[in-house]
């Protein structure tokens, strides 16, 4: 696929920088969404995570309403809603409401992971199996979005009969196979699961069956990106995300740290290997270097869209990174 046919989108976790608040993080996300809209990004998705002091997007559908209300054209979506945490009727009603208020702009990305630690998952799910009933819940949700049938007693109001595109999200081959079999678009979490990337995309395409929503496979790849005027500055910006993941590995999650001059002093060799392996799906450098990285990535994956997470501490530099990334994309 030609690079100029591939679209760019943003995945935002509403990161809370050290010294800031969740309220400010949400305002930062709206400012970023408005900036993304102004420079041509296609989608702005927010992710459901719970009990994490560095992430402010737990009430994902509420955050989406805030973002949609503050923008005009960019598609707003979930990347994703962790469906086993919710009753399908609630999600149908919430996203039916969003689609009614902001028609033609809402995406529903669904995952089956808890988006949190086991204790918090138990508090959310009240003993339900960890994603085992995801296919059944997905089927129930899709029926609620369908046109109501005569005599149907249970309806999502609003929601029934509305066109809310459903995406399946995954970090392995399970959702890839399911998305293909159901003819749904698939988004792979390459930003933290690069080892399964090619296998999941291949599984999706091999199992794809045309549906009313899609007549051919449509894949989106999640990546991290840190783009600056120089290679050294870009790598410096990336150290915030690396520290955050290192803290998570150590069981000490928290707000997004500021970048550091020498991250090598902060981790042990085995920690360094684990962090860099997990975050290997990252574009980093000045625009020319990143443009080549994008070209190589698209040649390997043949995806139709890239959705980018940039956990950058300084908000103006965060917006600049996304601007430079879009410029790099347009130069391919």
UniProtKB/TrEMBL annotation:
Name of this chain's protein: Luciferase-like monooxygenase
Gene Ontology CC terms: cytosol
NCBIfam families: oxido_grp_1
Pfam hit, one: Bac_luciferase
GO molecular function ontology, one term from the record: oxidoreductase activity, acting on paired donors, with incorporation or reduction of molecular oxygen
UniProt similarity note: To bacterial alkanal monooxygenase alpha and beta chains.
Cited Gene3D superfamilies: Luciferase-like domain
Domain Luciferase-like, chain residue ranges per copy: 16-301
């Amino acid at each position: 696929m030609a690079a100029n046919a591939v679209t760019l989108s943003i995945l935002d976790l509403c990161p809370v920088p050290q010294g800031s608040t969740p309220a400010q993080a949400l305002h930062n996300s709206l400012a970023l969404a408005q900036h993304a809209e102004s420079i041509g990004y296609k989608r702005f998705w927010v992710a459901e995570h719970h009990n994490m002091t560095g992430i402010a997007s737990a009430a994902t559908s509420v955050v989406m309403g805030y973002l949609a209300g503050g923008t005009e054209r960019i598609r707003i979506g979930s990347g994703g809603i962790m469906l086993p945490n919710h009753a399908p009727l609630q999600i149908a009603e919430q996203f039916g409401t969003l689609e009614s208020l902001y028609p033609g702009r809402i995406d529903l990305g669904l995952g089956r992971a808890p988006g949190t630690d086991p204790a918090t998952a138990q508090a959310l799910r009240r003993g339900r199996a960890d994603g085992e009933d995801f296919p059944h819940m997905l089927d129930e949700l899709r029926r609620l979005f369908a046109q109501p049938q005569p005599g149907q007693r249970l309806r999502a109001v609003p929601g029934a009969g509305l066109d809310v595109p459903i995406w399946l999200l995954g970090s392995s081959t399970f959702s890839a196979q399911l998305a293909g079999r159901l003819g749904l678009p698939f988004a792979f979490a390459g930003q933290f699961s690069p080892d399964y990337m090619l296998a999941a995309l291949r599984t999706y395409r091999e199992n794809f069956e045309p549906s009313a929503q899609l007549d051919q496979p449509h894949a989106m790849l999640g990546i991290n990106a840190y783009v600056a005027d120089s290679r050294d500055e870009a790598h410096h910006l990336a150290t915030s995300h690396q520290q955050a993941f290192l803290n998570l590995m150590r069981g000490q999650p928290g707000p997004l740290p500021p970048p550091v001059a020498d991250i090598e002093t902060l981790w042990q060799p085995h920690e360094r290997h684990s962090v860099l392996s997990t975050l290997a799906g990252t574009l980093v450098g000045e625009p020319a270097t990143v443009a080549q990285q994008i070209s190589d990535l698209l040649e390997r994956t043949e995806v139709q869209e890239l959705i980018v997470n940039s956990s950058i501490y300084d908000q103006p530099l965060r917006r600049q990174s996304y601007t430079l990334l879009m410029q790099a994309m347009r130069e391919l």
